Amino acid sequence: MSKSAAAPKVGLVSLGCPKALVDSERIVTQLKAEGYEISPDYAGADVVVVNTCGFLDSARAESLEAIGEALNENGKVIVTGCLGATPDLILEQYPSVLAVTGPHRYEQVMTAVHEVVPPRHDPFVDLVPAAGVKLTPRHYAYLKISEGCNHRCSFCIIPHLRGDLVSRPVDEVLREAEALVNGGVRELLVISQDTSAYGVDLRHKGAEWRGRERRAHMTDLAEGLGELGAWVRLHYVYPYPHVDDVIPLMAEGKVLPYLDIPFQHASPRVLKAMRRPGNQEKVLNRLSAWRRDVPEIAIRSTFIVGFPGETDEDFEELLAFLGEARLDRVGCFRYEAVEGAPANDLPDAVPEAVKEERWHRFMAVQQEISMAKLDEKIGRRMTVIVDEIDDEDGAICRSYADAPEIDGNVLIEEPARRLRPGEIVEVEIAEAGEYDLWGRMV
Ligand code: SF4
């Protein structure tokens, strides 16, 4: 198993104080989440980011020297950090620097990196939605906890590209999350190929963080993250039995009552051909147990229609499952062959027209469910995080039930005061649409 050779690589030179280090960590986190690799040397990097310090004259001199060295060794350099607050000083000496941004402007650093070496967005292998790659706002951050995957789903090439599961040590992840929260992040989005398998490769080896031993295990990780006071959202969770252990953390308000579980299908025959575990009855029992303990829990999932060999009966079974499971947010893909995936050799490909028709029927069934579930929220109070302010001062927000870019929004058309991105406010839901809600500040 080899890693993808084509992943773009970024070098990072970090100088300065602990605050600058937080920025560097944040930049590394986002780069990794978007599929970039961090190059240990100048020669292997497609671009080099120099995070500078400008506090003392000696630090300024050191920073300028580092910029010069990066330019000599690599040629493509982006400068950020405290010295970046005086771009003229840098550009006078080094006019070929590609971009200069000030301290804590890592989103601008990401934009500059994207311009030099765009992220290789591939919907089949990426964990971060394409739109999220454009500009990750300051108030939320993707926290990647592992790389690779031990499953061998027949439609997927991740294990081939990225290899088996390799988890990051638990203290490293928790420290990174802590640094992100200290740097202003209010929502952590935990991502991996299989979050529930976190730490299996490490035999759940423990490490100390904040004076206590924590295992490299989803439950301990969720518990630790829950201590940071930020929103914690778990993506790509498989319904293994130990997932039940994070439900009490949701009931206590430590982790958002949101689970993103890619079911992909419901027919045992199709799941078997996909080489995925799955037992509809067990899944439905699980869902009702979770809802019993945390009634507001929002479940998101994704499905594939038109997988090779999917019959009308299989598809009807999937629709019946949707009707019973009543999931909150659902994405549906028409099956597409991915180069190198074992599923390409399966017989009985489903004709495109049939895929299309199934996709429309699937979406119609789910849309009704989603709308009914959103309607139930009218009159309720919800806590929302502000993502953006629109031209008319209206606020585009999200509740616990909405992950950025992939789920809906809660819109406040006329906020009682001017809101800022990243603020968390209370609203009462007044209206519901197909995907979004409208609320009034309370
Ligand atoms: S769980 Fe399956 S679909 Fe997900 S990355 Fe692993 S092999 Fe691919």
Written overview of the protein:
There is one protein chain. It contains 13 helices and 20 strands. The chain is an alpha/beta fold and 442 residues long. Strand 1, helix 1 (18-33) and strand 2 (37-39) form a beta-alpha-beta unit. The longest helix has 24 residues, at 352-375. Mean pLDDT is 89; it is low at 1-5 and 130-135. The structure holds iron/sulfur cluster. Iron/sulfur cluster (SF4) binds at residues 149, 151-153, 156, 158-159, 193-194.
Give the structural class: alpha/beta
| Basic shape | globular
Q: Which strand-content bin applies to the residues?
A: 15-25%
Mean pLDDT: 89
Q: Would you report the number of β strands?
A: 20
- Low-confidence runs: 1-5, 130-135
- Spatial extent as radius of gyration: 23 Å
N- to C-terminal distance: 54 Å
Largest sheet: 5 strands, parallel
Bound molecules: iron/sulfur cluster
Arrangement of strands in the largest sheet: 2-1-3-4-5
What tags apply to this protein structure?
442 residues; alpha/beta; five-stranded parallel β-sheet; five-stranded mixed β-barrel; 33% helix; binds iron/sulfur cluster
Sequence-ordered SSE layout with sheet pairings:
Elements: E1 9-14, H1 18-33, E2 37-39, E3 47-52, H2 57-73, E4 77-81, H3 87-93, E5 99-100, H4 106-116, H5 130-134, E6 140-144, E7 146-147, H6 158-162, E8 166-167, H7 170-182, E9 187-191, E10 206-209, E11 212-215, H8 218-226, E12 231-234, H9 247-251, E13 258-260, H10 268-273, H11 280-293, E14 298-305, H12 312-325, E15 329-334, H13 352-375, E16 381-389, E17 395-398, E18 410-412, E19 424-432, E20 437-441
Parallel strand pairs: 1-2, 1-3, 3-4, 4-5, 6-9, 9-12, 13-14, 14-15, 18-20
Antiparallel strand pairs: 7-8, 10-11, 16-17, 16-19, 17-18, 19-20
Helix pairs in contact: 1-4, 1-7, 12-13
The structure holds iron/sulfur cluster.
